[in-house]
Amino acid sequence: MKTLSEILALSTQYLEERKISRARREAEDLLCDALSTTRMELYTDSERPLTQPELDLCRSRLARRGNREPLAYIHGSQKFFDCDIIVTPDVLIPRQETEVLVDKIAATLESLDLEGKTLWDVCTGSGCIGIALKKRFPQLQVELSDVSSAAAQIARENATRNAVDVQVHEGDLLAPFVGRHCDFFVCNPPYVTETEYASLEPEVRDHEPKGALVTEDQGLALYRRLAQELRGHLRPGGRAWFELGTGQGEAIQALFAQDPWRKLKIDCDWAGHERFFSLENE
Question: With a threshold of 0.70, does the pTM exceed it?
Fold first, then answer.
């Protein structure tokens, strides 16, 4: 039987041959997940022989990664802002950039009286943004929505998994909120163009849901709708935050500048790319 050290070496070689970046670290993560062990134990128990069922499981998961399936889908969950988020091919994998957005929102909410206040997380996908904010601010009423019924179900499961009480709706953009108002609004909508989509890495293009990534009008279709519809839902003094694609900041700001919103602001992610847009109602 092969030992842990032998399997780790073979797994690293297998991933390198398939052009997987950080092959050694990814092999470690895959083996740790498959064997329910730690990275340290991979080395302290390096001479332990693997059983045949363990070998079969490791090989199965390595084959999936060799096919460029993202690690998060293989594992079935992703850590996000103190939450454990279930992910399947029905929802996007939460990104570090979105954690930055949640951190920016939290920094604002910390200074406010949130009693009786409502936050909507639209295009919620896995629910990671709204669930993370509800977990951080339990007094805040949080509602999630997504046009995908499969995504909405994952969001419900994530709310249960993270022990937070949120409402989850199904519907196109603001359709679930007809006649209603919120104090805070956050949206990470599809904003990738078809041209950009064709050049994405296989992990994204071949495995994550295209409908959660791609939209029309040079990636601006949903922002254009929100610029027209959001004012009827955001209370006076209410605040809104959006994630956006690189290079879209000026165009999105121009869309919202057609109405008298206040404090329109574009912020960058850790890499210095324009990634977030925020505003405040009158």
Answer: yes
The pLDDT tens digits of the residues spanning 14-66 come to 999 999 999 999 999 999 999 999 999 999 999 999 999 999 999 999 999 99
Q: What is the mean pLDDT of residues 94-106?
A: 95
The answer to whether 248 and 201 are in contact (CB under 8 A) is no
User: Model confidence over 129-153: pLDDT tens digits?
Assistant: 999 999 999 999 999 999 999 999 9
The CA-atom distances, in angstroms, between 119 and each of 43, 103, 141 are: 46, 15, 6
| Tokens 């500048």 found at | 257
Q: Which residues of 227-262 are buried (b: 16+ CB within 10 A; e: fewer)?
A: beebeebbeeebbbbbbbbeebbebbbebbeeeebe
Q: Judging by beta carbons within 10 Å of its beta carbon (0-12, 13-18, 19+), is residue 177 exposed, middle or buried?
A: buried
Cα–Cα distance between 250 and 134 in angstroms, integer? 31
Residue 184's Cβ-side half-sphere holds a number of Cα atoms within 13 Å equal to 26
Each residue's pLDDT tens digit, 147-181:
999 999 999 999 999 999 999 999 999 999 999 99
Tell whether domain 77-280 is in CATH 3.40.190.10: no
| Cα of 121 vs its chain's centroid, Å | 12
Q: ∠ CA 48-52-58 to the nearest 5 degrees?
A: 80
For the chain, what are the domain ranges? 4-67, 77-280
